[in-house]
């Protein structure tokens, strides 16, 4: 495809959501009508995100797949000459999959919200915030200037804060404040590192800095910059122990907020490690890589153990909170792959990024559907006497939940397998200069994490999809007398005209609806892409591997 056309496509992908957000705030979105103003603005959101998705697909189709390491669709315009800050856009095999993932998930969220708008203020603000969030995320993956990267990185915080605080559930205000404070504090530290790199390197251009490969930066400068930038990125990743904002944010966020937070926003942190830290400050990256790997390995086991604790009976576990903790473990594999500093590890990390976005996005959609039907995501409530066995009452919903669970635990043939396998394989043979015994220990911890992940997800499937086992006897406390069989009733029989008793209270199971048409429309693409990526990993690895090889080699 013509370079000029590609430039316009990428510029349109980045700018159109922002223009759509401004249009959503107008009295009536132009060109769209509905039964009422709220339906009209929701339809506007679906239209804008649909056009952005179409542009991103066209961008992917026009991408030169024979040269994925080369920056394509580039725009380079001077913005602040005094600081050499430029409006520099471009994509390669690393950023293109994340760009398409963002456009896909945002469109599916807009489509889902059109039929099931979360409770809260008017739809106008909701749609505008979703579109601003999309614009910031897409810009993060497309910009090639350090200061523009920071602005785009920060641009997503305010809309996500309001999505949680205004359209979230119980505890939304405290969770929103925790989210914004953690991420803002991390970003302040990151900004200092970015400014240090730009001022000492003589430019904020990420391509020029990556080509220079740190040769113009002293060892001390690289260490300080890698630490400062890494802290800010680690908060967003999220890396243990800087993750504590995530479970609260996910638990309180509306369904689409959780989907975008897990599927897109977490990827911004790991993308920054790959795009900035590794090529720009390679000496600092090499120094801190073992520490990053150690935190990643601990996070994998910690996240799995937290999920097991939440999944057990009587733990007052919340299903949304459990999946949030699972993200800490899954993103630990991404960080472990990055910390190996090898092409295999980076390819595994980038693959796991995409797989996590697809699978965890689907999981949060499904958990939102369960909450809509039951009014709760408490595991004891879902597995208790209310009759929540999804297999019998909503088999399609139960089947999709099982599919997402086995994909998340890394079943071979689905997307979740390849990234985690490659990350562990890379830890077996890390880059030169890194301690192999230490990385073998990290690999063993990651392997333990995969076993624990299978354990807690199977417990969740048994409790939510199967409910209580038929004929299961309640536990008898120690020292309590054994229950005795009831004696035959001797009371007089009721008159023949008396009405039959109607089941009431906990014994009466709720009437459930199975998967609806709009839910199928929003979830089927994620299912299909999860299967496609699992069966044909070369489609993604063929894009990322040349770009990773070029990046580690200091190429442009």
Any chance you could write out the topology, listing elements then pairs?
Layout: H1 3-24, H2 37-62, E1 72-80, E2 85-91, H3 95-115, H4 123-142, H5 146-155, H6 157-167, H7 172-201, H8 206-212, H9 219-236, H10 245-252, H11 255-280, H12 282-311, H13 319-339, H14 343-374, H15 379-383, H16 390-393, H17 395-408, H18 415-428, H19 436-466, H20 517-535, H21 538-552
Antiparallel strand pairs: 1-2
Helix pairs in contact: 1-2, 1-4, 2-3, 2-4, 3-4, 3-11, 3-14, 3-20, 4-5, 4-6, 5-7, 6-7, 7-9, 7-10, 8-11, 9-11, 9-12, 10-13, 11-12, 11-13, 11-14, 12-13, 12-19, 13-14, 13-18, 13-19, 14-17, 14-18, 14-20, 14-21, 17-19, 18-19, 18-20
How large a portion of the residues is in β-strands, by DSSP E? under 5%
Over the alpha carbons, how many angstroms does the gyration radius reach?
A: 25 Å
Mind describing the biggest β-sheet?
A: 2 strands, antiparallel
Q: Give the mean pLDDT.
A: 84
Report the helical percentage. 55-70%
User: Could you say which structural class the secondary elements and strand pairing correspond to?
Assistant: mainly alpha
Number of helices: 21
| Principal-axis shape | globular
Q: Can you tell me the residue ranges where pLDDT is under 50 for at least 5 consecutive residues?
A: 469-509
What is the count of β-strands?
Answer: 2
Cα-to-Cα separation, first versus last residue: 21 Å
Q: In order across it, which strands form the biggest sheet?
A: 1-2
Listing every helix as H and every strand as E from the N terminus to the C terminus, the arrangement reads HHEEHHHHHHHHHHHHHHHHHHH
